[in-house]
Amino acid sequence: MEQVKCLIIGSGPAGFTAAIYLSRANLSPVLYEGIEPGGQLTTTTQIENFPGFPEGIDGPKLMENMRAQAQRFGADLRSGIVTKVDLSSRPFRVTINDEKEIAAESLIVATGASAKYLGLPSEQKFKGMGVSACATCDGFFYRKKDVAVVGGGDTACEEATYLASICRQVYLIVRKPFLRASKAMQERVMNTPNIKVLFEHNTVEVLGDECGVTGITVRDAQGAESRIDLAGFFLAIGHHPNTEVFAGQLELDAEGYIKTVPGSARTNVEGVFAAGDVRDPHFRQAITAAGSGCTAALECERFLLK
């Protein structure tokens, strides 16, 4: 059985940042990239809010740079998916692809969270070309244009009000005849003049051409369909943290996010740390994920040096 000092699971900004720090500390981290190497940013086009890139940078390029930086310092980056873990004692036992078993003195979990989508083929077709799951990340590209947000909870309302501050018209498409958001958030939406709430509407299809999204087809409660012309289509129906393999071993919240000690990356299992979106149901930004990857690496280093 292979033995490693630190095993990092996940290859987004959190995982790669942790690998950079631990490599520079001569701790020889091994990182498994998981089912989506590079994480959600590989499905994003230009990123304009990551510090250090005044002209912006494409998501896949940013992740390629982070990966190369981790490799430069000696991180052992591997393809593979963690299919089983045993955190009952140290060293922790981690199984890769149901075959290879690794014994790890410490573990950094950076498996991320996946945005929930409607499941429309056209939605997948235009992902990154007008279809987005992050208004904070991509809203800037739709300034003074018409956009739509799908969802009825606090996140959807927050995204709609944010987009309303920069876009011409925002359509909030709500499946139910009411909003699930808090009363204060509902009032904010209803008092924003360029937000139009479409209750009891479902998106049937995302429309577009080679340049990206041009509109959507929606269906109301009576079955009548209509087209809405717009340039951006935002999903705000939740995220799913990739924590199934840790259930019953790491403490998770009601939504499945890993709980950590406040102000720390430490989990309820000594020697196991969590970083990035897998522990962050609120911000979900590349910069916050990278920062938590740094925190996890520094705490992991101190743990190993004890």
Keywords:
alpha/beta, 2 domains, single chain, 306 residues, elongated, seven-stranded mixed β-sheet, FAD/NAD(P)-binding domain
Would you give an account of this structure?
The chain is built from seven helices and 19 strands. It is an alpha/beta fold. It folds into two domains: 2-114 and 239-305, FAD/NAD(P)-binding domain, CATH 3.50.50.60; 117-235, FAD/NAD(P)-binding domain (3-Layer(bba) Sandwich). The strands form five sheets. Strands 1, 2, 5, 6, 7, 8 and 19 form a seven-stranded mixed sheet that branches. Strands 10-17-11-12-13 form a five-stranded parallel sheet, with helices on one face. A three-stranded antiparallel sheet has the order 14-15-16. Helix 1 packs parallel to helix 2, helix 1 (13-24) packs parallel to helix 7 (286-305) and helix 5 (154-164) packs parallel to helix 6 (183-190). The longest helix has 20 residues, at 286-305. The protein is elongated, with a radius of gyration of 21 Å. The relative contact order is 0.18.
